[in-house]
Design brief:
The complex is a heterodimer of chains A (610) and B (291). By secondary structure, chain A is an alpha/beta fold. Chain A contains 24 helices and 10 strands. Chain A folds into 3 domains: 208 residues, no CATH class; 178 residues, P-loop containing nucleotide triphosphate hydrolases (Rossmann fold, 3-Layer(aba) Sandwich); 62 residues, no CATH class. In chain A, strand 7, helix 21 and strand 8 form a beta-alpha-beta unit. Chain A starts with 6 loop residues before the first helix and ends with a helix. Helices cover 71% and strands 2% of the residues of chain B. A two-stranded antiparallel ribbon of chain B has the order 1-2. In chain B, a hairpin with a 2-residue loop joins strand 1 and strand 2. The C terminus of chain B is likely disordered. The chains are: A alpha/beta (610), B mainly alpha (291). The interface between A and B is large, with 40 and 43 residues.
Chain lengths: 610, 291
């Protein structure tokens, strides 16, 4: 992921930048420079809005922060004679503050709810701007907003000012994309639940995205006010939101260049469409519909695909194998017939293993009730360091509910769960993950739209420095973290025998490989305690034996394992101890041979003899 | 006191219309998982069809309403078939943006066809005051109240009793299970979208003689329908009715006693407050159910 720019793209970038710098000297038409400045504003807005897309959020409230920045800057300079540089940063900070407040209130909402609540905030801002006439002049607007400095005459100074802002923003976003933060955001967009289970806080990065986006929008708003020198509530209109969203989505959401391209196309396009006069907006709407129908992921990705195809045709070779031509089994030669795993056992964990007297996890009187349903009731058990503990029971016995309670993905009604003397009840799922508790999910849970290898790189994220500054400045720690992630990913690919599929999209893997990849993802976060939720479900017998060997190997490396499983052969052969649940209650606990002969267990599975 | 009751009555009237809008929107969301940004444009088109058929062509008002519902309903069916079905499996923002495109397209086509000046449709009923106690009601307003009630009750019966209604409710609960039980989910989607559009058109047609008709009237109605659906709980039929009435009354009282400038803000403030305090809405559940 962190591959450096190729030579071609470096030249291309340098060419584009010098073309931009020289634009005012090569074009005499003032109208075009003005259009370039407008494009610049929209590049800022679209790129900022796109930060939210990177964490998978669609907001319909970007104008709130843009408008707030513009009004703060205009009011400070016209009413209070504040110098422009101060007003400019005040605009950014005011927008950031608003982003923080609104983000804290709304970021737990998803999809349609989030879309509509952000729309609600933007409209409320617009109505305040319209009606708080004492401060904003209402619909009349604020006139005679001063230029940033006395020497801002004509379009050219504004052009270089916005160019500087655009270059800084894009450079920052580029740095961010190829850092721990960018990878965390990618993980959240792909699968927020899984990201939490490997120590990535969805809320933290969403709030960070909201703060960055609103800061940039606030600055863009200030620039707008001082460029047009007039400001009215029009800046908060819903149409503008649509324009920004269209630029991002049409350009290519969650890509770096997509919003830039989208911003330029959709600033220039309406001007071109002026020739068709009244039909302009109707055509615009039609284009938007067609784009969603035929290019739903945007122009930039479509261009990239086209470019790649041309490249392949010219050079006659395939660039990257997206899907390998044939799928072998990952278990080929690996422990399928009881032979020892060929990969050398490597102890990666600093946990002092196999001291089985030490208790790692304690579950006391755990109750999880859903309304009147007692999914789990008064369950006690503990997990000793270094052991494999299995939890079994008929369907609906509450096994997954317990795993969810431990990893704080699901609720706890009553009782205590503690890990090495620390109480887990009050934690969030990513915090549990950071205590060294990893898990897999009953339904296959991966980062579907990135490569198998990238899945493992992303899974390393919780171990990396998350500070924004460290990442933007590309500190030693963050560079080292990226290297570590790559190394760890390769090592796990090797261990799980997924190396031939490293470049394949995770969702294109066959089911058996996906389950193995899930295990790899959990391992990449370096847990000391690993909770496996029915890892063998749907696997064929060789795959199950392979899994069995892997589980044992993981335990040899010092990882404690809690296994929820229906496959009795697997459970009986790997477990040190077994907890049996039925209807949410613990009915037995003990070594496999004890449980096997326990009367209540037999009854729960086979029914009472009448 | 009389003033208060008059405000309440006005609120009830507008609220009934909001409920009509909200029911369609909430059904479309529940069944198709699409947030329809063109909903207010269907309302606008309904009003314009009534204006064209009733005012310009002189067809009786009731018939004009039927024409509006059928024409816009058909447009809804076509939209589902040509625009929404091909992108059904895309992430939810793709259909959302497609309906935004449709909304822009429809509003601007209306601008070209009917020009931007606001139109008066004229009244289909004589302008006499009907005294109900101390209150005065015009026949038009009475008709709107009754019609809104009839349409809502009819929709309810359709959902509960008819075979199609049951198929819609089944799809609403679980699309895959419904498909496996032999429900033709494509037809359900088409009917739901067409019917939601027709209800919006009826709402527009009913209010057309009371307010003016203009091409940009749809946007704010879309926003208010969102408010109704959010407050009532996304996907809740009774929630949409309750929230529609609530919003109508709140706006009417707010405009009467507080400030008319912020009248339109009430809808958005309701959205924010409800989502921040109780994200599932008044009558919504974690897994939204249809009554």
């Amino acid at each position: 992921m962190a591959q450096p720019l190729t030579r071609t793209s470096r030249y291309l970038l340098a060419g584009l930048l010098s073309a931009a710098v020289l634009l005012p000297y090569t074009v005499s038409d003032q109208f075009i420079i003005r259009l370039a400045i407008q494009s610049g504003i929209f590049i800022l807005l679209a790129s900022a809005h796109n930060i939210l897309m990177k964490v998978g959020l669609l907001s319909l409230g970007p104008v709130a922060f843009y408008g707030l920045g513009a009004y703060v800057s205009a009011i400070l300079t016209t009413r209070y004679d504040v110098p422009f540089p101060v007003a400019f940063f005040a605009a950014g900070l005011a927008a950031t503050a608003a982003g923080w407040v609104i983000g804290r209130l709304t970021l737990r909402l998803r999809t349609a709810y989030f879309v509509l609540v952000t729309l609600g905030f933007a409209e409320c801002f617009r109505l305040v701007a319209l009606n708080w006439i004492d401060m904003t002049n209402g619909p009349m607007g604020i006139t005679a907003v001063p230029p940033p400095a006395r020497w801002f005459v004509g379009y050219i100074p504004y052009f270089y000012f916005i160019l500087l802002l655009v270059v800084l923003t894009l450079f920052g976003l580029y740095r961010m994309e190829h850092s721990t933060i960018g990878r965390a955001m990618q993980a959240i967009r792909q699968n927020e639940l899984l990201a939490g289970s490997i120590g990535i806080s969805g809320f933290r990065y969403m709030l960070l995205a909201a703060l960055l986006a609103s800061f940039i929008m606030g600055l863009a708003g200030s620039f707008y006010a001082h460029f047009f020198q007039f400001l009215s509530p029009e800046i908060l209109a819903f149409d503008l939101t649509i324009a920004i969203v269209v630029m991002v989505v049409a350009g290519g959401r969650a890509t770096l260049m997509g919003p830039v391209l989208g911003a330029i196309v959709f600033t220039v396009l309406p001007e071109v469409l002026r020739v068709v006069q009244v039909w302009r907006m109707a055509i615009f709407g039609l284009l938007l519909m067609l784009m969603m129908l035929f290019m739903p992921d945007g122009i930039w990705p479509a261009l990239q695909r086209l470019g790649q195809r041309c490249f392949e045709r010219v050079t006659g070779r395939r660039t990257a194998a997206v899907v390998p031509s044939s799928f072998g089994s990952p278990s080929e030669g690996f422990a399928a017939n009881g032979s020892p795993p060929p990969v050398p056992v490597r102890v990666e964990h600093e946990v002092t293993p196999t001291d089985r007297s030490q208790t790692l996890l304690t579950v006391e009187r755990l109750c999880v009730h859903f309304g009147g349903v007692q999914a789990v009731h008064m369950v006690d058990f503990d997990v000793k360091a270094g052991e494999i503990l299995s939890i079994i029971g008929p369907n609906g016995a509450g096994k997954t509910t317990i795993l969810n309670a431990i990893t704080r993905v699901g609720p706890i009604t009553d009782g205590k769960i503690s890990h090495q003397d620390a109480l887990l009840n009050g934690l969030r799922s990513y915090e549990v993950a950071r205590c060294g508790i990893g898990r897999t999910f009953q339904n296959t849970s991966l980062f579907p739209d990135v490569s198998t290898r990238q899945n493992l790189v992303l899974a390393h994220n919780g171990l990396e420095p998350e500070s924004l500054l460290l990442n933007l400045l590309r500190s030693d720690a963050s560079v080292q973290a990226a290297k570590d992630a790559e190394v760890a990913a390769d090592r796990i690919l090797e261990r799980t025998r997924l190396l031939p599929y490293g470049a394949s999209l995770a969702r294109s893997l066959p089911y058996g490989h996906q389950r193995v990849l899930e295990l790899g993802i959990a391992l990449a976060a370096r847990p000391s305690l690993l909770l496996l939720d029915e890892p063998a479900a749907g696997l064929n017998p060789p795959e199950v034996s392979n899994l069995m060997a892997m589980i044992q190997q993981i335990r040899h490396e010092g990882v404690t394992i809690v296994l929820v499983e229906h496959d009795m052969k697997l459970v009986m052969s790997v477990s040190d101890r077994i907890v049996v649940l039925d209807h949410g209650r613990k009915i037995a606990e003990g070594r496999p041979e004890e449980v096997r002969t326990n009367q209540r267990v037999v009854e729960a599975y086979l029914g009472k003899r009448s | 006191m009389v003033e208060l009751v008059q405000h309440l009555l006005n609120g009830f009237l507008i609220g009934g219309i909001y409920a009509l809008m909200g029911i369609g929107l909430t059904l479309i969301f529940g069944v198709m998982n699409v947030v329809n940004f063109a909903h207010g444009q269907f309302y606008m088109l309904g009003a314009f069809v009534v204006y064209t058929v009733f005012t310009l062509a002189g067809v009786p008002y009731l018939l004009a309403l039927v024409v509006a519902a059928m024409a816009v309903g058909l447009l809804g069916v076509i939209t589902e078939r040509l625009l929404l079905r091909p992108i059904r499996d895309q992430p939810p923002d793709v259909p959302m943006l497609a309906t935004i495109g449709l909304s822009i397209f429809l509003a601007n086509m209306a601008l070209i066809i009917w020009d931007p000046t606001p139109k008066d449709t004229g009244l289909p009923f004589p302008l006499v005051g009907v005294k109900v106690g101390p209150l005065t009601l015009t026949p038009m307003r009475l008709f709107v109240l009754v019609a809104a009630f009839v349409i809502i009750a009819g929709s309810h019966l359709f959902l509960q009793r008819s075979r199609m209604g049951k198929a819609i409710r089944a799809t609403f609960q679980d699309r895959e299970a419904a498909a496996l039980m032999g429900v033709d989910v494509d037809v359900v989607n088409m009917v739901t979208f067409g019917w939601g559009a027709a209800m919006a058109a009826l709402a527009g047609g009913l209010l057309a003689p009371i307010f003016q008709v203009f091409p940009t009237m749809g946007a704010i109605v879309t926003a208010k329908s969102f408010a109704v659906v959010i407050v009532g709980g996304l996907g809740s039929f009774p929630g949409a009715i309750l929230a529609g009435l609530l919003l109508g009354i709140a706006e009417s009282l707010g405009a009467g006693y507080v400030s008319s400038g912020y009248r339109d803000a009430i809808a958005f403030i309701l959205i924010i407050v409800v989502l921040v305090v109780r994200p599932t809405g008044l009558l919504g559940h974690e897994t939204h159910k249809l009554a």
